[in-house]
Design goal:
205 residues; alpha+beta; 4-stranded antiparallel beta sheet
């Protein structure tokens, strides 16, 4: 009883000043180093950023935290709804996730790892023109504008790439319900289309 493997802490710093709250968290960190597991409920975002793993809950529903970080303009209700629509996927290093010229069926948000964006050059060779990592996304051009993939997307590095995938219906619903999000993605689309043309030397449009 005096040496439990797990501690449950419900708002342990809720009524404390910031200095005392920090000392409590430092105590928790020390216990974790000694092999303890601590499950803590908190409304303090600063403390939540310091934990090993954070799970966001709204009205009894778990929200995909990465989704909330990438798209902070979405409301809590929208985040809950789209968390249910998301499809987690993992790709081994070197795997082709999207191939240029093929239909794009999903919008991808990167959770872990990096991907290479590969486009053809004017001289006929392929070149890696960008690396996307955690919190970035791809497939938005084809989702928003239609058409086949403009580039090849390949899992990079030595670790698997983990993504959240949305099918076309879920993506369209997401941007239709948030004018601000649609504007943000449209701006990214415009920037990336220009980058594609520039990096290909204007050879392919």
């Amino acid at each position: 009883a005096n040496d439990p493997p797990m501690l449950l802490a419900d708002e342990p710093t809720g009524n404390l000043d910031s200095k005392t709250a920090d000392s409590v968290f430092i105590l928790f960190e020390d216990l974790v180093k000694r092999g303890k597991t601590i499950l803590m409920v908190t409304h303090d975002n600063d403390l939540a950023k310091r934990v090993t793993r954070a799970v966001q809950i709204a009205d009894g529903e778990i929200i995909e935290r990465q989704l909330a970080d990438v798209f902070p303009v979405l409301t809590t209700e929208q985040l809950v709804a789209f968390t249910h629509r998301v499809d987690p996927e993992q790709y081994a290093p070197g795997t082709i996730i999207l191939r240029r010229g093929e239909p794009v069926q999903h919008f991808h948000v990167i959770l872990k790892g990096t991907v290479d964006i590969v486009v053809p050059q004017a001289n006929g060779t392929d070149q890696v023109v960008a690396h996307y990592g955690r919190g970035q996304y791809f497939g938005e051009i084809e989702m928003l504008r239609g058409g086949a993939s403009l580039a090849t997307v390949r899992a990079d590095g030595d670790v698997p790439v983990e993504v959240l995938r949305f099918d076309r219906e879920a993506f369209n619903q997401m941007v239709d319900q948030s004018a601000e999000l649609k504007s943000i993605i449209a701006r990214v689309v415009q920037e990336r289309e220009q980058e594609n043309v520039t990096t290909r030397g204007g050879a392919l449009r």
